Amino acid sequence: MSPEQIIFGIAGALALVGAANATFRRDPLAGAISLIVTLFALAVLYLGLGAEFLAAVQVAIYAGAIMALFVIVIMLIGPAAGRARGPRLVIPAAVVALSLFGLLAAAILGGRIPDPTQGVPADDLAALADTVYVRYLLAFEVTSVLLLAALVAALVMVRKRSTEREWPRR
Amino acid sequence: MPTVAYLLLGALLFSLGAAGIVLRTNALSMLIAVELMLNAVNLTFVAASRHFHATDGVAVAFFVIAVAAAEVAVGLAIVIDLARRHTVVDVDQASELKG
Questions:
Q1: Which of A9, B23, B74, B84 is most buried by a 10 A CB count?
Q2: pLDDT for the residue numbered A163
Q3: Over the stretch A42-58, which tens digit does the pLDDT of each residue have?
Q4: Is the pLDDT of residue A85 over 70?
Q5: Burial A41-50 (b: 16+ CB within 10 A, else e)
Q6: Are A71 and B15 in contact (CB under 8 A)?
């Protein structure tokens, strides 16, 4: 077995365990922690795929900032508000997941993936910067506007209205 | 590893996330499932990026992470508002449209 196969086996299994735990656990806090495990395993897979910078971004921004925000909000609204009822629609969920995976697997295994073309390797940081800041410059700028809009929207939604009752005491 | 292995792993993670959205009624758990699906797509993009020796897939994965950050900010704001109006952030209880 090559090192890449060993890394893929361990990190892939860890990602699947974390994802299954995030899906089937009732407690949102346990789900968030499980998702962080999956994010770290995916960062390892990105390293194996040669996307070192994306792996760093995945750990620093996704696991570090986004999921920290998640855990903070779960703590803020309290365990009582975060408490969930048991799973509903178990059979529809199984149908959705199995049919979706069946379709995707059939497309992946049945379809013909074109042969690799010769180009720059995926771990070329200068080429990546060229792609993000030159080829996709418009998308990059639009993303900054989107982030600003999301920030303003979040502030507007959580501000306290004078007519609203106080935060419910528990 | 062949690219197909990464694509299948991504499909598996995506299906698990889709199951989580149907299964859960808690808004926080549903947001977590959405994050899982976004990450499955990211894995597929990065695998394709290596397969075709191009940086486009990695670049798109960056944009997906940025959009996920915006989505989490708005989604968690809705969750906090929901927790103020009801005691439980259950999507089945948030059925009224009056603002």
A1: B23
A2: 56
A3: 999 999 888 889 999 99
A4: no
A5: bbbbbbbbbb
A6: no
- Mutation target vs B (from A131, A138, A140, A156; most B CBs, 10 A cutoff): A131
Q: Which of A4, A119, A143 sits opposite B63 (nearest CB)?
A: A143
Q: What CATH number labels B3-85? A: 1.10.287.3510
Strand ranges for chain B from DSSP E = none
Confirm whether A43 is domain-assigned: yes
Residues 92-111 of A with CB under 8 A from B: 92-94, 96-98, 100-101, 104-105, 108-109
Q: Looking at residues B13-19, what average pLDDT do you find?
A: 94
Q: What is the distance between the alpha carbons of residues B31 and A158, in angstroms, rounded to a whole number?
A: 17
Say yes or no: A145 and A77 in one domain: no
pLDDT at A162: 55
Q: Would the CB atoms of A61 and B65 count as touching at under 8 Å?
A: yes
Phi, then psi, of B9 in degrees rounded to 5:
-60, -40
- Tell me, what's the pLDDT at B98? 62
Last residue of a domain, one of A49, A82, A115: A82
pLDDT digits (tens, 9 = 90+) for A118-146: 766 656 788 888 888 999 999 999 999 99
Quote the domain boundaries for residue A130: 124-164
Domains identified in chain A, total number: 2
